[in-house]
C-alpha cells in the first residue's frame, strides 16, 4: 500500500491532486471489483454506496479515514458516490471542467446556492465556492488507465483560481500545461473538485472502471443536508431497528 504521510495535504493545496499508487492491495482490489460486478455492464451509476451496500462493505474504511486525516479532512463523510465504466459500448469524451455541483435533500432558496436541477429523485445545486473548496474527491481505479485508456487529464494548480467561467476554462485549457494521471488498478487519485480536469475517449475496447467518491466534513446550512449521506444514515438506522 502507498505510504500515507502528512505531505498529502500540502501537495493537494499546491497542485490540487495527488496519485497514491497501490492504495488497494490485491485482496482489497478483488473484493471491490466483485462488489461492483452487478453494475459493471453500466457506464455510470450514481449513489452506489447508498444503493449497493456490498460496495460500501467492500471498502476499507479504516484506511480511508487515515488517508482523510492526512489530507486535513478529519471527520469527513462520503457525500456522493459514482461508478464509471468506459468501455467499447459506452465511450465518451469529457471536456475541461470543474466539479461544481453537490447533491442535497431538498430545494430551497439560499444565498449563494444556484442552478438547481432534479435528476432521478435527487436535487443538485451549485453551492458557494467555499463548500467545494472544503471537499475532496477520491477516485479508485479498478482497471489500468493510461493515456490510451481515457486516463484523467488535469491542470495542476487550477483549483486555486476558485470558480471559473466558461471563457476562463477555455482560455486556461488552451494555454496551460496539463498532466495525464496514468493509473494502475488499485491506485487512487485524490483531487479537489475545482481542479480543471477532462478525459478523452478510450482508444481501445477495454473497460476503465472507476469508483468516484466525494467527501466533506462540512455541514450545509439548514434545511439542506447532503442527500446521499442522509439517505445512507437513514438506511443504517432502519436496518438496526
Write a concise keyword list for the protein shown above.
241 residues; alpha+beta; Jelly Rolls; six-stranded antiparallel β-sheet; 13 strands; 26% strand; globular; disordered C terminus
Structure description:
This protein has 241 residues and is of the alpha+beta class. 29% of the residues lie in helices and 26% in strands. It is built from eight helices and 13 strands. A hairpin with a 2-residue loop joins strand 6 (114-119) and strand 7 (122-126). It has one domain (7-240): Jelly Rolls. The longest helix is centred in the C-terminal third of the chain and has 14 residues, at 227-240.
Map the helices and strands.
Elements: H1 7-15, E1 17-20, H2 26-36, E2 44-46, H3 48-51, H4 53-58, H5 61-70, E3 77-86, E4 94-97, E5 102-104, E6 114-119, E7 122-126, H6 129-133, E8 135-141, E9 153-154, H7 166-175, E10 179-180, E11 188-191, E12 197-199, E13 208-216, H8 227-240
Antiparallel strand pairs: 1-11, 2-3, 3-13, 4-12, 5-7, 6-7, 8-11, 8-13, 9-10, 9-12
Tally of DSSP β-strands: 13
Strand numbers in spatial order across the main sheet: 1-11-8-13-3-2
- What is the CA-atom radius of gyration, in angstroms? 17 Å
Task: Kindly report how far apart the N and C termini lie.
Answer: 37 Å
The CATH C-level name is: Mainly Beta
- Give the helix proportion (percent range): 25-40%
User: Strand percentage, roughly?
Assistant: 25-35%
What's the name of the CATH homologous superfamily?
Answer: q2cbj1_9rhob like domain
Contiguous helical run count:
8
What CATH architecture label applies? Sandwich
Mean pLDDT: 91
Task: Provide the domain count.
Answer: 1
Q: Could you give the order of the helices and strands?
A: HEHEHHHEEEEEHEEHEEEEH
Largest sheet: 6 strands, antiparallel
How does the helix and strand content classify structurally?
alpha+beta
Q: What spatial form do the alpha-carbon principal axes imply? A: globular
Given as residue ranges, the uncertain stretches (5+ residues, pLDDT < 50) are 233-241
* CATH T-level topology: Jelly Rolls
Amino acid at each position: 500500500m502507498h505510504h500515507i504521510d502528512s505531505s498529502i495535504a500540502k501537495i493537494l493545496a499546491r497542485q490540487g491532486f495527488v496519485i497514491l499508487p497501490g492504495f488497494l492491495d490485491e485482496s482489497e482490489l478483488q473484493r471491490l471489483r466483485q462488489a461492483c460486478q452487478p453494475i459493471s455492464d453500466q457506464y455510470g451509476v450514481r449513489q452506489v454506496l447508498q444503493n449497493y451496500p456490498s460496495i460500501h462493505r467492500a471498502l476499507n474504511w479504516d484506511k480511508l479515514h487515515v488517508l482523510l486525516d492526512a489530507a486535513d479532512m478529519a471527520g469527513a463523510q462520503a457525500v456522493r458516490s459514482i461508478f464509471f465504466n468506459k468501455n467499447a459500448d459506452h465511450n465518451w469524451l469529457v471536456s475541461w471542467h470543474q466539479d461544481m455541483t453537490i447533491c442535497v435533500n431538498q430545494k430551497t432558496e439560499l444565498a449563494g446556492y444556484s442552478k438547481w436541477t432534479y435528476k432521478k429523485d435527487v436535487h443538485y445545486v451549485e453551492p458557494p465556492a467555499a463548500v467545494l473548496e472544503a471537499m475532496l474527491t477520491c477516485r479508485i481505479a479498478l482497471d489500468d488507465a493510461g493515456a490510451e485508456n481515457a486516463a484523467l487529464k488535469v491542470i495542476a494548480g487550477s483549483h486555486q483560481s476558485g470558480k471559473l467561467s466558461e471563457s476562463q476554462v477555455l482560455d486556461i485549457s488552451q494555454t496551460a500545461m496539463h498532466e495525464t494521471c496514468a493509473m494502475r488498478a488499485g491506485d487512487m487519485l485524490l483531487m479537489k473538485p475545482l481542479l480543471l480536469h477532462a478525459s478523452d475517449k478510450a482508444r481501445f475496447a477495454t473497460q476503465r472502471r472507476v469508483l468516484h467518491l466525494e467527501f466533506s466534513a462540512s455541514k450545509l446550512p439548514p434545511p439542506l443536508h447532503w442527500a446521499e449521506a442522509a439517505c445512507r444514515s437513514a438506511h443504517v438506522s432502519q436496518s438496526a431497528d
